Amino acid sequence: MPSFSILILTKNEEKNIARCLKPLLDLSDDVILLDNGSTDATKDIALALGAKVQLLQWEGYAMTKNKGHAFAKYDWILSLDADEEINEELKTEIKELFAKDIAEENAFLLRRKMVFGTQILHHGSLSNEYRLRLFNKNIAHWNNAEVHEDIRFDKPAQIHKLKGYIKHYSYDTTAAHRLKLEHYAQLSAQQMYTKSKPSSFIKRHISPLFGFIKNYIFRAGFLDGKLGYAYARNEMWYVSRKYTLLQELYERR
Description:
The chain is α/β, with parallel strands linked by helices. The chain has 2 domains: 4-170, Spore Coat Polysaccharide Biosynthesis Protein SpsA, Chain A (Alpha-Beta Complex); 173-252, no CATH class. It has 7 helices and 11 strands. The strands form 2 sheets. Strands 1, 2, 3, 4, 5, 6, 7, 8 and 11 form a 9-stranded mixed sheet that branches. Strands 9-10 form a two-stranded antiparallel sheet.
């Protein structure tokens, strides 16, 4: 019967880390925080709950996570963020999955549901969000993307979806969401600039509006009420912002 390690990237996550850890501590005997220099109580809370803490210098999302694989006791890794929490259905599924042997070429997509403000968003762009978070480190690693990093495989893999989900406690307010999107927009613009991606009028103005209509109307984001509208509006702004920043990079060179 295989075992697995749980790796969680952290920095100053004292408000989230206990909620994240509590459902995990009876799933694995190797729950590790990959901490990038927290100055709050994150490490103390984790240690008190029974998790391990490994200090790592920040080298970007993907590189830091890849370096963290070296500290995992087991080949199988469940990768989570500190602002996430697995639900009971997913916890049961993972237990059943590891009650038998698993070939290393398998990997598993986990569904995420965003907690935005005070409610879970069930519709819009997030209605069918899956992230590859459970994999064997012998054949898998994170790519080198500056933002929205993803898993890459060294040989063909069989990808499966699990039925349970992760609650993603993302942003307490729409203003906090906009602030984080500004950070992502800057990273995305730089990444696209490095790859010589174009920034056209359509990308800056038409695509964001089309994305809003698709997510708010056709994907029924309106069913999530005022917060569904606020989320779709901020996502429209993000698309426009990253291509505007990209255009500014081209104009400055």
